[in-house]
Specification:
801 residues; alpha+beta; Penicillin binding protein transpeptidase fold; Beta-lactamase; five-stranded mixed beta sheet; elongated
Length: 801
């Protein structure tokens, strides 16, 4: 008997010694790293960086994991009650380890539940590996969790532990942390969650993949009701409340989140590049980062929870995106598609069969399908280049992805057979103005289809601050990711003419100076020409005098050519550079017709000089960057350049007002017995019930310029009001895809209406404080006559007497 007692106590003692030995080894880090005090006080986690608009709205995020931390005071009491009732009833009373639950876990190795407190679960999420399937390693791992839990309870309050748990938990569907989960599943915030919503999210904590409300709504509903029953059991809700709440549907308001979701996706992509550039800059001649953490490491926009403040106004951005889609989808695209259907080589105009073949070949090489077929990209993980290699398997050749986490393969297609693959109809999803649609078409037909879709870009800028208020880079970032504000360069057409006229005004010509409307010839050898060149107007109406103001208002090529020849293309280029044009411009006579390829960003910047009394404010879209504690890491500096005098700028604005208000001139109209008032942008004033964009009152001062390029490939409108400068471009991806009729393809019909739709919304929104007001007249011009019909703007010598 004594022998059995001895053996019993030896076993007990051995077990206790083994337990304490394991505990000692775990404490010293032999069974895995135990976090230091610093680790506990600053647990690492990936935090999404948030992009804020000028009016305080979140435009979007940059993340590896879509996580933004919430504070305890931002959490709904229902959320806290549901979590404690379901996951850890004794949370408020235990020191991080629940003895009763722990004993049950040791006896049943966790199979009966109750193995971990909330603090232990947090310890596992923060510092330990995933749960081991081995019984041998599960006990030491549990001991690690106990040690870390005890330390967490020492350094954090119960409320802080609850908050950290909810901020850390992955609710799947790109919703990491409770703040993201509330937004993704309910378009709500943590403090606004209702009881049944909080119960659903807490229910996901048991197994978020199993209780995924998107994939398994019925299973998730049953789990939610289990949570509600636990809340009854712990006296957080009544049985009557349970009876009503358990009958409710999930009532999801699901918003899938990725980097391109939300407003201003094109802008955020440009901003992403800017942020990466700023955060990687080093002090010249050293390896030190200009913007760095205390340890010298650079910040990471995907992990460090930065707060990025921009100049973009969320409402103006929404108005801009709406205006583009509204006009293109409702009117212009149907008109364009109708024209394109009549073409034998759809959708191309004036191209030979050989030229079409070359365009299509280039387009095919740019597709993901072509990259996959030629082994330049994995069809599964989409890694590029070195990860894909040719291998022969069972006498058949494959493209095989060598990445460890992929390994997928696809049959190798001979180069000569790729064309046949692109001719074969397949199932695919394609863009439509009503939303993405499923269809069957060949890849070649899809290329032609996408080339037939009109694209657009729009940028709006406050001329007094240089702040960009709206940036619409395209029609749909998912299908057409190329930015048409800063990245794309297109011929600007007649929108370049104001720089030529500004040069004339500065050089002494008054706006009312009369020029004979006859073609001007640039001779061979003049300005580097290889042959004579004589630009013409639309039509053959020549032989009478017009003012410079009339010539610009009606975009007369003959008048601009006369000015260009008088003051030289090189001088015009230099003037445009002063205004803010940064792209290369070839100083050739054809510049008078706008042959330069420029981007919308620099055009809006340059025009803002006219509205800001001759001062150019370098465009700014990034105001400052803060770390997740609110410390300022970067603040933008404003660059200001004086381009022209206030009086000069106002005189140019007055000329540009003629585009939308009209100028009297030209031939005598026999029907009325006098000259007519005309301007290329006057259609915005006429109230046509079939057009939603026009009807802007005549007394609203608007300076502007329309632009149309050769063959109607590009349509432009630059609109200037006292407190906002906005530019719009419209065209197809390929310049050979264009309107045949100029009445349809001119900037006054393609771009101007978008500007009008946008500005109507802006003016209607009183909170934006952009009023329909007159331009400020410089003090020295207040008594000056600008009316050419009354011989105005002609006596320059006495202007400032």
């Amino acid at each position: 008997m004594k022998k059995h007692i001895v053996i019993f106590w030896v076993i007990i003692a051995s077990g206790l010694l083994s337990f304490f030995a394991i505990f000692f080894l775990a404490e010293k880090g032999f069974l895995g790293k135990i976090p230091t005090v610093e680790d506990l006080q600053n647990p690492k986690s990936d935090l999404a960086s948030e992009v804020y608009s000028s009016d305080g709205k979140v435009l979007g995020k940059y993340f590896y994991q879509n996580r933004t931390n919430a504070r305890y005071q931002d959490l709904s009491p229902h959320l806290i009650n549901a979590l404690i009732a379901t996951e850890d009833e004794r949370f408020r009373s235990h020191p991080g380890i629940d003895v009763k639950g722990t004993l049950r876990a040791l006896i049943y190795l966790g199979s009966k539940g109750g193995a971990s407190t909330l603090t232990q679960q947090l310890a596992k999420m923060l510092f330990t590996e995933k749960r081991s399937s081995s019984i041998i390693w599960r006990i030491p791992q549990k001991i690690q969790e106990w040690i870390i839990s005890a330390k967490l309870e020492r350094y954090y309050t119960k409320d802080e532990i609850l908050t950290m748990y909810l901020n850390r938990f992955d609710f799947v569907n790109n919703a990491v942390g409770i703040k993201s989960a509330a937004a993704v599943y309910f378009s709500s915030t943590p403090d606004s969650l209702k009881i049944h919503q909080a119960a659903m999210l807490v229910g996901m904590a048991k197994n978020p993949s199993l209780f995924n409300p998107i994939r398994r709504p019925d299973t998730t509903t049953r789990r939610r009701n289990v949570v509600l029953s636990q809340m009854v059991r712990n006296n957080y809700i009544t049985s009557e409340e349970y009876d009503s709440l358990s009958q409710l549907p999930l009532s999801l308001n699901f918003n899938r989140v990725d980097h391109s979701e939300g407003i201003a996706p094109y802008f955020r992509e440009i901003l992403r590049g800017k942020l990466k550039e700023l955060l990687s800059e080093k002090v010249e001649g050293t390896d030190e980062f200009i913007i760095a953490k205390d340890n010298g490491e650079p910040y990471n926009i995907y992990r460090d929870g930065l707060r990025v403040f921009t100049t973009v106004n969320s409402r103006m951005q929404q108005y801009g995106e709406w205006a583009v889609r509204q006009y293109l989808s409702e009117y212009l695209q149907p008109l364009f598609s109708k024209e394109l259907k009549s073409r034998s080589r759809f959708p191309f105009a004036s191209l030979t069969e050989t030229e079409v073949s070359q365009v299509m070949s280039t387009a095919r090489r740019r597709t993901m399908r072509h990259r996959i077929l030629t082994g330049k990209e994995c069809h599964n993980c989409h890694r590029r280049g070195k990860f894909v290699e040719e291998q022969e398997i069972d006498d058949k050749k494959y493209w095989v992805c060598t990445a460890e986490d992929c390994g997928e393969r696809i049959r190798l297609v001979h180069q000569d057979s790729i064309g046949a693959v692109f001719d074969r109809p397949v199932d695919m999803k394609v863009f439509s103005w009503e939303g993405e649609i499923d269809t069957v078409m060949s890849p070649n037909d899809s290329i032609r289809y996408y080339k037939s879709i009109l694209q657009s870009g729009m940028m709006s800028l406050d001329p007094h601050t240089g702040h960009i208020k709206a940036w619409v880079g395209g029609i749909d970032h998912h299908h057409f990711a190329y930015d048409h504000v800063q990245m794309a360069k297109r011929q600007v057409g007649s929108t370049f003419k104001p720089f030529v006229y500004a040069l004339a005004l500065e050089s002494g010509l008054p706006a009312c100076h009369k020029v004979v409307n006859i073609p001007t010839t640039f001779k061979k050898g003049e300005f580097g020409l290889l042959q004579d060149w004589t630009p013409q107007n639309e039509g053959d109406d020549y032989g009478y005098e017009v003012s410079l103001k009339y010539g610009l208002a009606n975009s007369m090529n003959t008048i601009t050519a006369w000015v260009m020849k008088k003051f030289t293309p090189q001088a015009a280029v230099e003037y445009a550079r002063r205004c803010g044009i940064k792209s290369f411009i070839d100083p050739v006579p054809a510049l008078a017709l706008g042959v330069a390829d420029l981007n919308l960003h620099e055009m809006v910047s340059a025009y803002s000089t006219f509205a800001n009394k001759g001062m150019r404010m370098e465009p700014v879209y990034l105001l400052r960057i803060e770390d997740n504690a609110g410390a300022i890491l970067y603040e933008a500096e404003q660059e200001i350049v004086e381009v022209m005098s206030e009086e000069q700028a106002f005189r140019l604005v007055d000329i540009l007002k003629g585009v939308t208000q009209g100028v009297r001139g030209g031939q005598i109209d026999p029907e009325v017995g006098r000259q007519r008032i005309t301007g290329t942008g006057m259609r915005m004033r006429y109230d046509n019930p079939n057009r939603g964009y026009d009807g802007i009152p005549w007394d609203v001062e608007i300076a502007g310029k329309t632009g149309t390029t050769q063959g109607n490939s590009d349509g432009w409108f630059m609109g200037v009001v006292p407190d906002l400068v906005t530019g719009v471009w419209v065209g197809a991806e390929d310049r050979s895809v264009r309107f045949i009729r100029t009445t349809h393809g001119q900037g006054a019909n393609t771009a101007l209406p978008i500007w009008c739709y946008y500005m109507k919304k802006v003016w209607e929104d009183e909170s934006l404080k952009i009023e329909q007001r007159d331009f400020d007249v410089p003090e020295r011009l207040k008594n000056y006559n600008f009316d050419c019909e009354q011989n105005g703007d002609s006596d320059l010598e006495t202007m400032f007497d």
